[in-house]
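Teaching assistant here, posting this on the class forum so everyone can see the example we discussed in section. The complex has two components, and the goal was to see what a joint structure prediction looks like when all of them are supplied at once.
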Amino acid sequence: MTSRPASERRTILVTGGTGTLGAELVSRLARGSHASVVVLTRGTARPRPAVPPNVQMLTGDVRCGPTFGLDSSDAATLREHITDIVHCVADTTFNRPLAEARATNVAGTQAVLAFAKECQHLERMACFSTVYVAGRTTGCFAEQDVGGADGFVNSYEQSKAEMEAVVRDAMRELPIAIYRLSTIIGDSRTGEVTGLNAIHHALRLLYQGLAPMVPGQETGLVDLIPVDFAAKASHYLFEHEFSPGATCHLCAGAAGSATLGALLDATMTAFERYRPAWRKRSIARPAIVELETYELFVRSVEEAGNQVLLQATRAVQAFACQLAYPKVFDNRHAGVVLARAGIAAPNVLEYYDRVVRWCVEKNWGTAS
Amino acid sequence: MTRVGIDALTYYLPAYAPTLSELEALGALRGPASTLAGFGFERARVAESESHVDMAMHAVRALLSETDTSPDEINLVLYAGALTSSSTMECSPAPAGSVLRLRDFMDFFKYPVSQLQSELDLSNASVAGIDQQGCAAIFSSVRLARATLLAEPDVHTVLCVSADRLPHGASREVVYNLVSDGACAMLMRREPKRNRIVATHQVTKGAFWDSGSLENEIIAAYFPTARTVIEDTLRKAGVTLDDIRWVIPHNVSLRSWEILLGLIGCPREKLFSANIGRVGHTIAADNFINLRDAADAGLLHPGDLLLLFTFGYGLNWSCMVLEH
């Protein structure tokens, strides 16, 4: 790889640039630098507001291999110009069959890495991962830790841990940093949710009175972050404090997290506040139970063959079991760097109410 | 302070006890018998010729006989029923297509408790019906009996009775539980020899009144509210689960009890579960059938603290702590 001539502009390839985080990041990259931004998109994402003039949308798919399904000459041209890669593409569905999760998260990343190795002017590359590569680990999980020693709760975690292994291997040849994200739940300023995930589905089940229990501990911390923090922090690290070989936790940490009990209380309070009629439904706060009890309930629902509850429990199960493995994500490295720039994750209870309000008032995105 | 409790109790169960397989063959289950077997059920008790009033009278006669109690000693009868049909008399033969087995509107004024008072010559007793709380009705009758005994000096003995039978041909499976017919009867007095009531507690959530269309929501609501009600009852009683010697259940599925025990952090060994399989869920009499059988089995000792919990449509969660 050779450095680009100083006169030439940077060209940043963003995969997954239309997703929840990717869209925010593209906006910041386009605004905050004089670079050209190329967004690789499968073309199936929902319409987005008009893109800035220095953003080019390119239809392609990382699952198609190192050319992303582009015409070979287009792929060659892209390789010629790319100076930066921000790899956001991920299959974040928690309960996807492992092979399907791997197809995007592992094989897709391998394709991006193979592409990157052919980019003559590549200067930096960011790969987004999840703090939940920690899997079933309990206690403190640090940025330098490699997860999975105790297994994983779902295929998403496992496939992202496998992705990290692939990325770390490529770090010997490429200037890559890994940014591990906590669970993104919405915009801290507006509460808007641009991509529903398992947390929002669980909130809806709770609202409907179909979530009798969650595994975990009343005082166990739940790490959640808003999308604006995730975008601002990762943009800053990538643009101003890029450190090849580093792994950074973009999470709330102990200071920014709330207990599971407090989050459930806040959820019930928000439901009552923003939908007063909901109170009349007398829906109880879900019981927080040991994993063994929760799994017995799930098994009973399966044996009973109750399809509604089966779907509900499966939707919750994929992530909820993680709550039974209490842990704190240590973000010492990224936290110090970001603090110097005045960037820190807000405590979830400062904005959680707004997110729940958005879910209720927008009926989880189905209301206009 | 005056102590009130259940001085004596007995029950009646029909002799006919078909197995799950037999019930399945009769078309009396909604789902496969294997599901209910996996949840801890074995057989149901099914009334053949007996009406619910017949079962109530069987139980009360046995109670008066066992305790050598004169009918004249009874000052108040509280007659509980889970099913709406238990508050009416059954016509025989039943009109075609009738669930309540009524012929005309005057049948609404024929009350089982009045017939029971008359047939058993309980001439010193006034009567009242307790219903509209599903399987929690008998708990309410115990609660009201206690309150009456504490409030009215001239009431010395209250007879609490409960009897329910499903209509002929009805499914024996309700929300993954196997339903039996049966009755129980209790004598409640001040300064009882046993079963002093330490605390009672009930929570009603009328939002779930339409039970038929809210089955999934009811299943989901059951567990967290059950835990809260049990914990609040223990708090009222000034005791903890560690102080409880036995949990005397309503005979819903053993599986649901295992889950609930997990929720409240109670060892499985404390659950008196012997009757769930062999008796099934007798709607409104379970806890007291089990209390009697646990006592007869020599499992209960003076001073033992017992936790009784039940749940009824309506929805109602009821719980009490007794000191045996």
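For the discussion questions: Chain A is about 40% helix and 15% strand. Chain A touches chain B at residues 208-213, 280-287, 289-290, 292-293, 296-297, 300, 303-306, 308-309, 312 (CB under 8 Å). Think about how each of these relates to the inputs above.
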